[in-house]
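Narrative of activities, Objective 1.

The group set out to show that a structural description can be obtained from nothing but a protein's sequence at a throughput compatible with the screening campaign. Below is one input-output pair from the validation batch, recorded exactly as produced.
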Amino acid sequence: MTDLVSYSVEQDVSTIRLERPDKLNAMTIPMWNAVTAGIKQANDDSSRAIVLTGAGDVFCAGDDISALADIEDERDVRELTAALLRCWGAIESSPIPVIGRANGSAYGGGFELLLAADVSVVPVDATFQLPETRIGAYPFYAAKRLARLVGRQRAMDLAVFGREISGATAEDWGLFARAVPESELDAEVDTLVEALRLSSPSATATTKEWLNATLELPGEDVGMRTGLGYLFSGPDAREGAEAFLEKRDPEFSKKR
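Output recorded for this entry:
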């Protein structure tokens, strides 16, 4: 684990909290790895639920852009890609339901963390966006899920055009299960946890496994690794990250 991600257990509920509010909980490779470690620890602790949340007013602003700007070679690309895929895989394969508790807005990888959770509860007035293409990257986890969740055109609107939506719209579209006033987040999460306590752990795990199996497509992970490697090793990802940090418009290559 890292001091930027905390893990705690209360009764039979494990909580993984992003602890970098001064940077809007922007994710680094050690943080992605720490979330993965937290999921595995919860499995070992035989928790009934895993709550994934953040400190501060924003759930997660996505990947730390300064870290993306530091990517220099294929080894760096492999390390980042592996960390991301391990995290999504740990969430999906955990036999314990993962509840996303968005303490505020989420962007990029933060949005995708909430998509990966089994059920996410979000503030009705929070905002959610996938801005990756504007920095020369792409929302690889969302790209493999969105069309099946919301239909092709809404998926394009979100992932290609970068549309920002509210928690209320995200619930209406079926992206997240529940959107409530911020003051009711904890009560809603408690309701979900109590529902799990009424169910058989083994039956819950089997049901989750089969539901997730319906989302898988052959060759997805290979395709994501290839796509990420191509983008992060190309000039547009570096230009996008540097332009973001320098607060200027990026000058992307005209070639696809």
